[in-house]
Amino acid sequence: MQLLTLTHLFCWFGKIHPFLDGNGHIQRALFAAAATELAIPLAARFAIHPRPFDRLLAWPLEMFTRAVPDQREHYLAMVAEYLSSWLAGPFDLPASGIAP
């Protein structure tokens, strides 16, 4: 449930953002603040600054913003899978899926 909450926050901010630049940095800062508020530790690999592998996140985020409401869940799942790599604790265990 926590991962789903973080994913919705991340995706919807990206969809409604009013900024022309810096969206990814703000999304990551918001994500980090929300994860901290939910008492989920961030993984050591989390960074505010973009990394080359974030291109893997760009496509499902873009598709989420363009999708009609009944198609968004598919892209939310893809974003959630990626975002879970930024979290530690139960999310950081190999083959653990999502936290209970």
Automatic annotation (TrEMBL):
Protein name: Fic family protein
Organism the protein comes from: Sphingomonas echinoides
Organism phylogeny: Bacteria, Pseudomonadati, Pseudomonadota, Alphaproteobacteria, Sphingomonadales
A Pfam family annotated for this UniProt entry: Fic
Matching Gene3D superfamilies: Fido-like domain (1.10.3290.10)
Domain of life of the organism encoding this protein: Bacteria
Domain Fido: 1-85
InterPro entries: Fido (IPR003812), Fido-like_dom_sf (IPR036597)
